[in-house]
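FW: tagging you since you asked about this chain on Friday. Here's the raw sequence from the shared folder, copied in full. Didn't touch anything.
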Amino acid sequence: MADEALAFAPALELAALVRDGQVSSRELVDLFLARIERLDPAFNSYITVAREQARAAADRADAGRASGTVDDLPPFHGVPISIKDLTDTAGIRTTLGSAAFRDRVPAADAPVVRRLRQAGFVVIGKTNTPEFGFGSTDPIGYGPCRNPWDTERTSGGSSGGAAVAVAAGLCPLAHASDAGGSIRMPASFCGTVGLKPSRGRVSTGPIPNMLAQDGPIARTVSDAAALLDAIAGYDTGAPFWAAPPVRRFLDEVAGPPRRGLRVAFTPDVPLARSRPENVAAVEQTAALLEALGHQVEAAAPQWPNADPVAETAKKVGELTGERAADAQAPAGGTPAVMQHGAPKDLYSVFGARFLLIEDQVPSPELLDPLLQTFLHDLHQLTLKDYLAIETGMYLAAEKTLRFFDTYDVLVTPTVPYPAPLVAELRDPAGTYATESLFATCTWNMTGQPAITLPLASYADGLPLGVQLVGRPGDEATLLQLAAQLEEARPWSDRRPPGC
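HL: got it, structure written out here
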């Protein structure tokens, strides 16, 4: 098989080739390292390329295959994978996207990395991410990650490097994470499959994080399902868990297609008007699902209140028998960090845990000005403020979740606009303009699984993703439906120019 064909082959196919002895793990690692060296200067998808560690791991994988029983090999034995640079890797630099941690090398793997190594993967490098995961992927310490379909445009965030690496054939599969759209937005911008699992499906260890989940970015639905099989599971002490699946997610994809699912669709999300191409893509996906035998209708959930503090005050008033108008928001009104609506509030809940490592930063001046401002704002939050935000999110999630008592799946735009230009990411003061993330962040609040599929394109050829949202814990239905759409409208032959 030619090198280019290998570079864009599904990871499951590469695993079979290694298992059958048709290609070695070292050959695969060298292939992707060569492609990274040749192509990535234009994209900047990797912060760290683990050349020597990857080659040594590949050699161990090849020696293990030669000396052992093929049937005993793990499912992805010897297959390269990239890891998002927010996630610790033993012996491989992990910077958190921050210049302040340029020399940080963890001693232990994060739980998800441990599972990936147990599945046989070879870690080839750490992908670009914004500092501490905030914003689009343009960390000041490492430079912007550029979209392979148009290098003047961003890859999105915060798993931008992961999406570019997969789209450009710089790794066959990528680990990513998502706290408000950080898997799905870059996957949509770059033309890949991106799956945010249910809350608790993938153990994050004992440190609670109600919004973030690790998940796959892949080129095929089967690869995404198989990677989820590899990383899913409960670790003792984890604060969240999802009920174990009835069978492997890969088996769900390979099984007979389901019919008669109750599917709702909406091209509209709050605070953002979908482009005509996004509207058309959602409507065409709905029509295709109806042709595939599902019950489809236009309907939308009750989207979360843009002010969760008001949501909390209202609910407290109801529970205590007070009139909602008499329930008071925290003293002094809504803090500045919360004035931009739900996406900013999500950052408050997600970002508060970074206060725990604030004292480890050698010098605050090394941080992105965006982060300096954000951490300053976090310090202004009182405990009451924080609890009001978090409680308001749970209350809003309850209302939104009731929609799925009626429907199995919701179809929406992943992002209602194409990838922005890198030059447009920051205003003159160096801060990000507020954008609507309701289409993606809502499902981090509710904890539901959501997947984006590269089902369409804009007129200029930029990828356009369509999002499917499932019931809590029901990745199986999402993956089954995604596989049906992939078969009906394949995308595997689409590649960025020059890759």
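FW: The chain has 16 helices and 13 strands.
HL: agreed, and The chain has two domains: 3-261+443-488, 308-403.
FW: great, closing this out.
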